[in-house]
Amino acid sequence: MKAASLKELKTELNRQSSNDLQALMLRLIKYKKENKELLTYLLFESDNEDSYILEVKKQIDNEFSNINTNSLYLAKKTIRKVLRTTNKHIKYSGIKQTEVELLIYFCRKIKDSNIPLQSSKALYNIYHRQLDKVKTSISKLHEDLQYDYNYEIEEL
User: Fold this and answer.
1) How many CB atoms lie within 10 A of CB 149?
2) Residues sharing a CB contact under 8 Å with residue 50, sequence separation 6 or more, in sequence order
3) Which of 29, 59, 84, 141 has its Cα between 20 and 30 A from that of 100?
């Protein structure tokens, strides 16, 4: 089965009644946790982006508290898991400023975790890839915000 194009889906959704749309949405969110999380963000959290960022930061803190610093292998796996979660929340938001704030926070947490980044090439690459990603995202923001965030990047 070939998936319909975005334009075709948009046209078909415009034809549906509100009850049919609600039924479609409920059926869609039933099958994937990610769909349910995205709809939760759109309905309840998109109005207050600052509180959403704080909640994600708390989740990042919680996951970083579970890192096993004795084993680089386990630390690497946990950091990748935290990065996946962070990127998922960035994708839900779709706002560049949120992306920059969360990635800077993620990088700061790696730096503060006392994990020897130089000992593991994979960890070193993860950290520097995220810094590069932040720098490209910063370049798309307003000049005043760019200055503030570039100052934070220099500290990292």
Assistant:
1) 21
2) none
3) 29
Distance CA 36, CA 140 (A): 29
**Token pair recorded at residue 138:** 């910063």
- Largest interatomic CA distance in the chain: 58
Please provide the distance, in angstroms rounded to a whole number, between the alpha carbons at the two ends of the chain. 48
Q: Read off the tokens for 58.
A: 């708390």
Residue listed under structure tokens 């730096």:
111
Q: What is the pLDDT of residues 65-119, one digit of tens each?
A: 888 878 888 888 999 999 999 999 999 998 888 999 999 999 999 888 888 888 8
Q: How many CB atoms lie within 10 A of CB 139?
A: 11
